[in-house]
Amino acid sequence: MDAYDEGSSARHGPDASSRAAPPAQRGAPADPPEPDVHPGPAPEPVGSLAPPEPYPPGEPRTGIAALSPRYQVGVALALAVVAIGVCVHIGMTFLHVAPANTVTRAHGGAVDDWIYPEFEQNWKLFAPNPLQQNISIQVRAGVRGPDGMTQTTGWYDLSAEDGRAIDGNVLPSHTQQNELRRAWDFFVATHDSENRPVGLRGSLSESYLRRIMVLRLDRDDAVRAATGGAGAIERVQVRSRTSNVPPPDWSREKVSTTPSYRELPWWRVPQGEARGGVR
pTM higher than 0.85, yes or no? Predict the structure, then answer.
């Protein structure tokens, strides 16, 4: 047998290891080396084949969105009605205070029906005719002294007193600014030129103005000044002094600055008001 024969009983020389491996061994893969095992933390799982958890529910709905569709429609209709009402009211108020125009001439009655009496306005937009007069309210009283004699005081200019209290005052009171003026306007609006009441509010305006006069005289201590001591107010008389505001120096307008007076009749003071108003 030849020494190069590859049979199973062939003898191999010292260089047998360098010869090619048999065909069955040439195709077999070599075993990989075993990796070194080191103790340590367990590796984290790469992923999971289980289906993902559902997303958490969102925040609960609040307000109108929490209502059912039927109630949402109702709320929307209510808001629309309110918005329309507000727009109509603003429009009516604007037409009431605006100067005369085509709309107010054609629908002035409807505007007045909407405004009066709940939404009455006592001012006019742009003030086309501002007041150009100075009106002061004056009062005098008949005071009964301890001896039973009645004395008449001089005229007290109450408007001048309010003016001095307002002048230089950063925060004047509402009473100092408006009480006397509004009381006089109330009286003039409810009386004719002969000082006779017109309508049911005439007697109310007289009582209102009279009480203010008595309270002011008591505050000014007119009783003590007239009698020198204790006394009581029996009657009062009110008058207004009206004078035109003089025009500026550059104006050629000529107006009379002579004051005019409107004297009211004497009013008897009830017993409950005789000592400075109702107590």
Answer: no
